[in-house]
Amino acid sequence: TIRTQDVYAEQRFEQSLLETAVKERQILNDFDDALKNGELRLFLQPQIGLDGKMHRAEALSRWFHKDRGLIMPGDFIPILERSDNIYRMDHYIWEQAAKQLAIWEKAGHGDVSISVNVSPKDLYYGDVADIFIRLAEKYKINPARLHLEITESTIIENFDACNLIIEKLRKRGFLVGLDDFGSGYSSLNMLQNIQADILKLDMGFLRKLDQWERGKQIIKLVIDLAKTLDMAVVAEGVETAEQVQYLRELQCDYLQGFYFSKPIAVDEFEKKYFA
Ligand code: C2E
Ligand code: MG
Ligand code: MG
Ligand code: MG
């Protein structure tokens, strides 16, 4: 026998699937124009060093949709990834970042670096390394100022492609960071197989830091391990003064999180940090 509540539950489910499909279609329909019209914007979130100064920034994209307003990466990046459009968006953001580095260099801020995110789908295009090399040449920037952020799952999904790209770019002087380190299951394995320059401690580590002594010990160990391997450590998702104090005690090289700033537009970033 079919119960009314089950029928309703099923309808609700189908309704939400339909909504999802419609939204997904809209995102894809609007994407080309959005890219052309500058609706996709580079936002920057500062990374603060042990000296309390801003040294680096992460590039995070924001979509200012002409009708729908601000759309966050979580609501469009997976759709672009599923439809093989992410590469076009990432290429655009990488180019914005390179351009920004060139502008800063001329303005006397050539010591600041920007890290950009690389999606696993980007790696299906064999020329990711060449794209970065060409961008550095086109904008005449020091490759060491442009960092790539790659997650463990990206590396695991495409180990060979990833490893090739990482080796090629590191040889050219670009820096590579392991994003969301510790959020997956084979982080240590990855450290053994991939040489990188930066370890980004996943924000999951910080969540229980205030109540949990074991969490503190694990963070300490990971930071020490990274340093032993000559990697700089960036802690992500830093929100409280207690976290700042503890991470600084452990000599965590850079701190990134809402405690210091949310990701902000480039002009706002310049006003805040270059004034
Ligand atoms: P991610 O690369 O790990 O970036 C860090 C995310 O954590 C960002 O979310 C950032 O706004 C957020 N965050 C930073 N500090 C804090 C904090 O103190 N507390 C909390 N709760 N969150 C904090 P966002 O900008 O929404 O981006 C989410 C994810 O989307 C990114 O994770 C990255 O994987 C992806 N993403 C963003 N922009 C791009 C892009 O241009 N290309 C690609 N391929 N992926 C991107
Ligand atoms: Mg990242
Ligand atoms: Mg991250
Ligand atoms: Mg992430």
Largest sheet: 8 strands, mixed, barrel
Tell me the total number of β-strands.
10
Approximate shape: globular
Widest β-sheet, arrangement of strands? 1-2-4-5-6-7-8-9
Structural class by helix and strand composition: alpha/beta
Distance between the termini: 71 Å
- Helix count equals 11
Q: What is the ordering of alpha helices and beta strands? A: HEEEHHEHEHHEHEHHEHEEH
Indicate the low-confidence ranges by residue numbers: none
Protein name: EAL domain, c-di-GMP-specific phosphodiesterase class I (Or its enzymatically inactive variant)
Organism: Succiniclasticum ruminis
GO molecular function: cyclic-guanylate-specific phosphodiesterase activity
Commentary on this structure:
The N and C termini lie far apart (71 Å). Helix 3 (86-106) runs parallel beside helix 4 and helix 4 (128-138) runs parallel beside helix 6. Helix 10 links the parallel strand 8 (232-235) and strand 9. Strands 1-2-4-5-6-7-8-9 form an eight-stranded mixed barrel, surrounded by four helices. Helices cover 51% and strands 20% of the residues. The relative contact order is 0.11. The mean pLDDT is 93. The radius of gyration is 20 Å and the shape is globular. The chain is an alpha/beta fold and 275 residues long. One magnesium ion (MG) binds at residues 179-180, 200, 236.
Structure keywords:
alpha/beta, EAL domain, c-di-GMP-specific phosphodiesterase class I (Or its enzymatically inactive variant), binds ligand C2E, about 280 residues
